[in-house]
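Project outcomes to date are best conveyed with an example. Our students and postdoctoral researchers have been running inverse folding experiments weekly, and each run begins with a structure described purely in tokens. The record below, which covers 121 residues, was selected by the lab manager from last quarter's runs and is presented without edits.
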């Protein structure tokens, strides 16, 4: 039971990390130091997609699932709703490149908008 909970917590953290990679630039609207925290995270997230690496959270999560005696991601809310967002079926290298480019593009757009807004005011 404990390992299943730890695996589920890691899925939530993983999902939060992905949201932070994609939308974290919005924190720069409030804090000028925010890009120092966020931009390395974006670089890591985009690099993982473009190079095809596996996020270190994934094997740890799978290890916890194995220790809990589970295979796959069937079960409750977390397995049913969050995991398909993080680990879509049929994920290809081309899709990973597209996801990385989307994350980079969204952040370039957000930071560009933030800089434009700051210069305007």
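After processing, the design step wrote out the following sequence:
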């Amino acid at each position: 039971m404990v390992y299943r909970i730890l695996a589920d917590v890691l899925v939530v953290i993983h999902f939060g990390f992905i949201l932070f990679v994609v939308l974290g630039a919005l924190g720069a609207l409030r804090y000028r130091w925010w890009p120092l925290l966020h931009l390395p995270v974006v670089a890591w997230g985009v690099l993982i997609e473009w190079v095809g690496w596996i996020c270190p959270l994934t094997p740890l999560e799978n290890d916890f699932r194995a220790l809990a005696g589970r295979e796959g991601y069937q079960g409750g809310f977390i397995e049913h709703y969050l995991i398909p967002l993080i680990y879509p079926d049929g994920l290809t290298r081309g899709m990973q490149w597209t996801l990385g480019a989307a994350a980079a593009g969204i952040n370039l757009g957000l930071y560009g908008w933030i800089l434009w807004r700051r210069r305007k005011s």
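The helical segments are 2-23, 34-51, 57-67, 77-86, 93-120. The radius of gyration is 17 Å. The training component of this project remains on track.
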